[in-house]
Specification:
The protein is of the alpha+beta class. It contains four helices and five strands; from the N terminus they run ααβαββββα. Strands 1-2-3-4-5 form a five-stranded antiparallel sheet, with helices on one face.
Length: about 140
Amino acid sequence: MKKLLCAAGFFILTFLLVLFLMNLAFHQMIPDIHRTFIEEKGWDLAFYLPKKERFSIPEYPEPLETFYLAGVDFRGYEKTKITRHQYRLEQKCDTRYLEAVILTGDEKIIGSYIRASDTVPGVAEMVEKDYFMKEKYCIN
C-alpha cells in the first residue's frame, strides 16, 4: 500500500511538473508586444501553443477585400516577408473558438484580425472584446 501511495504521489508530482514546464514554454513563445496588443483589446489568451507561419498576401480581389474589411491593409507590404502568429483565445463565439491573428513584417505588427473556427471566411476585425461579443459578431 505504501508503494502504491508513493507511486501515485510521484505520478502527480511529475504531471504537475510537466504542466508547469508547458505553461512556462507557452508564455515564453509569445512576444511581449503581441501579448500586450491582445490584452489591450480586452482578450484573454487560452493555454494553447501559438502557431507561427509564413503568410502570403492573397492575389485575388475577394480575399483582399475580406482582409480589408477586417482592418488589414496590405498596401506597401507586397515585397515584405509576412509572418502570421495565431493565438487561441479563452472567449468563444457561440460554439466556435476564436483566434487572435497578428501579422508581422520587418519585426513590427502590420495587421491583426480575429478568426472564428468553422466559418467562411471567418475573418473579422480585431476590435475591443465587449464590442465583438455583444454588438457585432457573436450572439450568446
